[in-house]
Amino acid sequence: MRTNVEHIVDPALPGSLVPPAATGSAPEVLSGSPSPELAAEMREVGERLEGAEPAEVLSWAVERFGDGLVLASSFQDCVLVDLAVAVEPRIRVVFLDTGFHFPETLAYLRRIERRYGLNLLVVEPELPPDVAPCGTPGCCQLRKVEPLSRALAGAKAWVTGLKRVDTPERANAPVVGWDGTKRLVKVNPIAAWTEDDVERYIVDRGLPRHPLSYVGYASIGCAPTTSPVAEGDDPRAGRWRGSDKTECGLHL
């Protein structure tokens, strides 16, 4: 299988999220709000695809946005990747390497890359470990949010594995909607899924599991701020334990 792995270094400088020179696309993706036509389309599509199978949502997104579609994955599991490559094997996949991931996550990333021959883009911030290290104020902004914004430059839509059951902030997430922060269409094919739905899909498809999932890690992010949880606990209870933080900022 042919892979296309590219590493982008992010200078973490202020600027437009979607530079006009980099897009060559219609004005609908260059403003903070969508055009009236696009807004109407997203409302209609969101209502129509509510309750649809993820494959149907992804098929619509691939047909609608083509090469302008980007999938972002944390590689906590490979459910979203498995769903997406079944529809479009060469879909662009982005992974944010913050510099603080578990070695197991990076090994799992490479395993899944080889399994599917992913068109994978690994994005790394140009920051030494002692500048905004994991767990300090601003780390997620510099090591996740800004690198993702640049990785999405020129894209028309992005696909996420966001689920409504994840956090209260995600409870009303649409299957298809407008991301005003990133100025892109946001596609959440498994928004309506529960953790049981994810587990059932993994079992039914015989998918490889993240190694840490066997030792109590239910939601896996950066190593310094991720801990295992007890059986029956909220899967995200191990993220930023001891703080009131629930989101890194990618979905805000």
Assign the CATH class.
Answer: Alpha Beta
Model regions low in confidence, pLDDT < 50 over at least 5 residues: 1-31
Q: Looking across the biggest beta sheet, what order are the strands in?
A: 1-4-3-2-5-7-6
Helix amount: 25-40%
Specify the CATH architecture.
3-Layer(aba) Sandwich
Tally of distinct domains? 1
Give me a quick take on this structure.
This protein is α/β, with parallel strands linked by helices and 252 residues long. It has helices spanning 20-23, 36-49, 54-65, 79-87, 103-116, 139-151, 195-205; strands at 6-10, 69-72, 92-96, 119-125, 157-159, 176-179, 184-187.
Describe this structure as you would to a colleague.
This protein is 31% helix and 13% strand. It is built from 7 helices and 7 strands. With 252 residues, it is α/β, with parallel strands linked by helices. It has a single domain (6-238), classed as HUPs (Rossmann fold). Strands 1-4-3-2-5-7-6 form a 7-stranded mixed sheet. Mean pLDDT is 85; it is low at 1-31.
